[in-house]
């Protein structure tokens, strides 16, 4: 009986030791899981904070985008209005000038001492130029255009030869 009791005591002791080992391992596992839970909570709080910040920034960007879009629409509306004004003004000017013919060179004045266009007196300081184009008139510096090696010509002859210059 004592041997049986000793073996039972040894078995109980061994079982107690194993239970303590299991309890200690479970406590360690529980501590590790609590630490993991704490880190997960901290990560969750950081993610929630980052999400709130991102949502706030998105709302701010949307508000800015809406304001910019409103400004652009207003600018487009203003530009369309201005375009209509300019078209009306162009039409009005076109109607005013519809009956006006293109100027033709006037005949050479009888007085060779006067400019054919502005009738300014040629003096010592005001040079006279012969129009090298259609009219062959004598014109002053103001009423003529330099044609380079072709000489000078009066403004009306120049405009007739170069209509895009007007």
UniProtKB/TrEMBL annotation:
UniProtKB keywords: Coiled coil
InterPro entries, alphabetized: RUFY4_dom, Znf_FYVE_PHD, Znf_RING/FYVE/PHD
Signal peptide: none
Gene3D superfamilies attached to this UniProt entry: Zinc/RING finger domain, C3HC4 (zinc finger) (3.30.40.10)
Coiled-coil residue windows: 16-57
Naturally occurring in which organism (per UniProt): Pomatorhinus ruficollis
Protein name, entry field: RUFY4 protein
SUPFAM superfamilies: FYVE/PHD zinc finger
Domain RUFY4-like stretches: 9-95
